[in-house]
Design goal:
With about 950 residues, this protein is mainly β. The chain is built from 6 helices and 52 strands. The chain has a 26-stranded antiparallel barrel. A 10-stranded mixed sheet has the order 4-3-6-7-9-10-11-16-17-15.
Length: about 950
């Protein structure tokens, strides 16, 4: 690691040079071609590229021409200014081979025409800022032949792409990537960034995508998604292109990929298929944020029914996401089609994806749980075998009904089947290391989930500017069925026992059961929104929403009645519920917009009627409650390249059904939950801010952000632990005298050092929380603070090298009021390097390294230290260099180990798990491309 860091710095120093003394000159002609005018008296300035200090300036003469002499060798910026016109900026160099730089005709554009655009044009940078959108000119950035969009994004100021393809822009994660403003395979950005060729891109647009409602009304509702839109060149919209990758490795690893795209004017057709077991290819879908397999129904603040992760029968279920834990086998494929017709008045976007993911692994978890007067230590081992097959089809149709109204119809369907086989072995000891209990469990469970969603969104603008009306209708249907087996043996030991021996057990609990479940929900929601301008600067928005939610939940547990036969119903572990909710929501928001300031504030109020009936007992639970959701947003633009955003959101948090009347589950007999029907709502206040600044001439960007939230009358856990057996009983209660709080602060900085040709950046961040829980009915305050700093250096030279270095320390403060003498404070350090060298003979070698260290704490007396080194060597073939042979080495030092530490209430947990380690792979990569201009009829 030290060698690669030293090598990186030496390569940076190697690129520096000395400038000789001489004189050079520049000249050109300033005009407005649209007005057919020559702009006399235009101010022309020459600035140092290093620090933007003034070197020389002049004014254009009567015919618009200019000339500046007596300049010296170096890198400069030409700045051209004229009243009412957008500034023109161009980077240029003067050296021994070029004593005069002729800029030719410089065409200026009126600011009014550009809608406050700023244009920066140069050989290495081209940025256009329009309102909240930053647009990069792809032609101004240099990438290697056959590069993909991902490689282009790495060259753009303020945008980072990590080794897994995750994109960060201005300190925020980019979660959506569009192509010509359209969804491309829906929810996986990497299918764009790793698929589309960089030489097809005309512009890259970065902005915060608002909700359909906010985009239409122009009034911010706080819902934003950091988005990148890839605009293709007109001459790259007709033809086909793609990529084929075949990889085979030592150690039974393999990888295969096929990408094919056919574009014809406004039609796009794409297919892909992947297979691999090296962790480089996964599903990457985000529908886990919608409805998935479940353990119970939960109800949102406005009457929504959510189905949370887990199986409906209380047993384990697989989410379908691979996070590095275990060894995966992934197979995925998909088809995409979108087109526009009827003069672009109508469009359709269709995606189909299917895939399977299998993960096998082992996990060890060590947990310290504090309680009044002592602590327990639990050591748990898990063997997991998870499988999921998933299909998803979605379609969106949009039509422009007339010049004032539009209709958008969307529908999607998801079908998932999962199979989980998990084995557990746990052991709990007290602070004197005496054995309290041990448990072995086997869970074999299958889930089937069907999800259907549909929505229609109608918008209309009236003659009066700012007066609009819109209507949203949506319906979501979800059905999950589960069946599985639970086999569990738990032994509780006599005081003073040191070794596990069931003959010394004081008592035991044996479970052998078959469990089934069927959970259904149907959610219908409508929302009517009307906006009315009160003046040129003031407008108001009203909305009314209606929701109708129906659900059923049937859970059954059966004891064994004979060999392989389970027919004895366990009444205490079985139930059947019918759930009905009716919600009405009204809201009003006042919006003020003038000049650089945009301010809006208001509230939404929901009245929710909830009715639940236990069909086993006939007991009914009825709840009527009101939820308040105040909000406020302020946006102020100091300039076209600097702005401040403030946001406040408040919301009532109702207790969930599982907290009031939990579904009885015995999956873990050492942890039992009781309901509390006396729970009352809590209220959460959330504050958020960000400041964004970009300096064009110096290429400097800065993003500062932070959020703070606190909850009054919080709902917290009261866990009562039997000190003799280690068995815990949990019940949720209100803690009206305390206030939960958490915060998150960060700063992102990036600057191009023109004189050295590399970028330097820094990240500072901190987060923390004060959280409460009750342990044996005594209040416990857990305080956690985390601080980190990262320094980044990167340098790129076409066909020579690509270098980057990132490193920095971190520190964690963590403690519990129940155990003031014990803390979980610990230091850490992370570093990563990336070196890619382009050698003669079409060879390329590279390495990326990652170093991680976590120091020991009072709870865990060993530190964690690992260095991951990956390397590759490749050579390209054919005239277009579009055939590549590559040898890849993963984790050359064979040190990769899964590791995490977390603090939750009075629980401190350290987890280690198996993951992909060292292997070597030989790959053949073929890029094919036959793209041309748009076919004209």
């Amino acid at each position: 690691m030290k060698f690669t860091v030293l090598l990186l710095f030496l390569l940076f120093l190697f690129t520096l040079g000395l400038s000789a003394q001489n004189t050079w000159s520049v000249n050109g002609l300033v005009t407005d071609t649209a007005a057919k005018a020559k702009l006399a008296n235009t101010t022309i300035s020459v600035l140092n590229a290093k620090d933007s200090t003034l070197v020389a300036f002049t004014r254009a003469v009567k015919d618009g021409s200019f000339s500046i002499a007596n300049l010296h060798k170096g890198k400069f910026i030409l700045l051209v200014c004229y009243p009412a016109y957008a500034d023109y900026v161009e980077h240029f160099s003067l050296d021994s081979t070029k004593t005069t730089h002729d800029f030719g005709r410089l065409n200026m554009l009126l600011k009014a025409k550009l809608l406050q655009d700023v244009i920066i044009k140069g050989t290495r940078a081209a940025i256009k800022i329009k309102g909240d959108t930053t647009e990069f000119n792809a032609a101004a950035f240099t990438v290697q032949p056959n590069a993909k969009v991902e490689d282009l994004l790495k060259q753009l100021p303020g945008i980072e792409v990590d080794k897994d393809g995750k994109i960060t822009a201005q300190g925020q994660t980019v979660s959506k990537v569009l192509v010509d403003g359209e969804e491309f395979f829906g929810d996986d950005p990497t299918l764009v960034t790793k698929n589309i060729r960089a030489d097809m891109v005309d512009k890259v647009q970065l902005y915060d995508k608002k909700s359909d409602q906010a985009a239409f009304t122009g009034i911010d509702d706080g819902q934003k998604t950091k988005t990148i839109n890839i605009k293709l060149k007109d001459d790259k919209k007709n033809g086909y292109f793609g990529k084929v990758t075949l990889g085979d490795g030592i150690g039974d690893y393999y990888q295969g990929q096929l990408l094919f795209n056919m574009f014809k004017a406004k039609e796009k057709f794409s297919v892909y298929a992947t297979v691999g077991n090296n962790g480089k290819i996964g599903l990457g879908w985000e529908d886990a944020q919608k409805y998935g397999s479940a353990d119970n129904l939960q109800f949102g603040d406005n009457g929504e029914i959510f189905i949370t992760n887990g199986s409906a029968d209380g047993l384990d279920s697989f989410s379908g996401q691979y996070d590095g834990q275990g060894l995966p086998i992934a197979r995925t494929g998909g088809v995409h089609y979108d087109t526009k017709w009827n003069g672009d008045k109508e469009s359709i976007n269709v995606n189909y994806k299917a895939g399977s993911l299998q993960v096998n692994g082992t996990t060890n978890t060590q947990t310290q749980s504090d309680y009044t007067g002592g602590l327990n230590n639990t050591n748990a081992n898990e063997t997991l075998n998870d499988f999921m097959f998933r299909q998803k089809l979605d379609a969106t149709y949009q039509v422009k009904l007339d010049t004032t109204s539009n209709l958008k119809i969307a529908a999607d369907a998801t079908f998932k089947d999962t199979h989980t086989v998990n084995n557990y072995s746990t052991e709990t000891r007290d602070s004197s290391n005496y054995l309290l209990n041990n448990n072995t469990r086997n869970i074999d469970n299958k889930d089937n989930t069907n999800i259907l969603d549909a929505s229609a969104f109608y918008t209309k603008k009236f003659k009066k500017k700012g007066r609009t009306i819109s209507f949203l209708f949506s319906e979501a249907s979800n059905e999950t069925t589960s069946n599985g087996y639970l086999k569990s043996n738990t032994y509780f030991y006599k005081p003073g026992t040191l070794t596990a021996d069931i003959t010394k057990a004081d008592s035991s609990q044996i479970i052998d059961q078959y469990k089934t479940s069927e959970v259904k929900s149907n959610v219908l929601k409508t929302n009517l929104t009307y906006t009315e301008p009160l003046s040129k600067t003031l407008s108001v928005i009203f909305n009314y929403g209606f929701g109708l939610n129906n659900g059923t939940s049937v859970l059954s547990s059966f004891n064994k009645s004979g060999p392989g036969v389970y027919k004895v119903l366990v009444d205490s572990l079985s139930d059947s519920y019918k759930l009905n909710e009716l919600s009405n929501q009204v809201g009003g928001i006042l919006n003020y917009k003038k000049g650089k300031l945009n301010l809006n504030f208001g509230t939404k109020v929901s009245n929710v009627n909830f009715d639940q009936v236990d069909e086993f007992t006939g007991d009914a639970l009825k709840r009527n409650f009101i939820n308040w959701n105040p909000q406020a947003n302020l946006q102020y633009r100091f300039s076209q390249m600097a702005g401040l955003y403030l946001n406040y959101q408040g919301n009532t948090q109702q207790p969930s059904i599982s907290q009031i009347q939990p579904v009885v589950v015995n999956t873990n007999p050492l942890n039992v939950t009781l309901g509390n029907p006396n729970l009352t709502p809590s209220f959460s206040n959330n504050f958020y801010f960000n400041y964004n600044s970009y300096k064009v001439l110096s290429g400097q960007s800065m993003f500062i952000y932070g959020n703070y939230s606190f909850t009054t009358n919080p709902i917290v856990s009261n866990m009562v632990t039997d000190t003799a057996t280690g068995k815990s009983t949990n019940q949720y209660v209100n803690l009206g005298t305390k206030r939960l709080s958490n915060y998150n602060l960060g700063m992102y900085f990036d600057k191009k050092i023109a004189s050295l040709g590399f970028n330097v950046g820094a990240d500072l961040s901190s987060n923390g929380s004060d959280s409460y829980n009750l342990s044996n009915s005594e209040v416990n305050l857990t305080t956690t603070h985390f601080y980190s700093a990262q320094l980044r250096l990167s340098k790129y030279k076409e066909k020579k090298y690509d270098l980057s270095l990132e490193f920095g320390p971190n520190y964690t403060f963590s403690g519990s009021s129940l155990q003031p003498g014990i803390n979980n404070n610990g230091r850490g350090f992370n570093a990563s390097t990336y070196i890619n060298l382009y050698l003669p003979g079409k060879f390329e070698i590279g390495t990326d390294d990652n170093y991680q260290w976590k120091g020991k704490t009072e709870t865990f007396n060993t530190d964690f230290n690992q260095t991951i080194v990956n390397a590759h060597i490749s050579r390209t073939f054919l005239k277009e260099n579009n055939l590549k042979l590559e040898i890849w080495g993963n984790d050359l030092l064979n040190q990769n180990s899964g590791f995490s530490r977390t603090v939750n209430g009075n629980f401190i947990t350290q987890t280690t798990y198996n993951t992909i380690k060292r292997y070597f792979m030989f790959s053949v990569i073929w890029d094919f491309n036959k793209m041309g201009g748009i076919t004209k009829k």
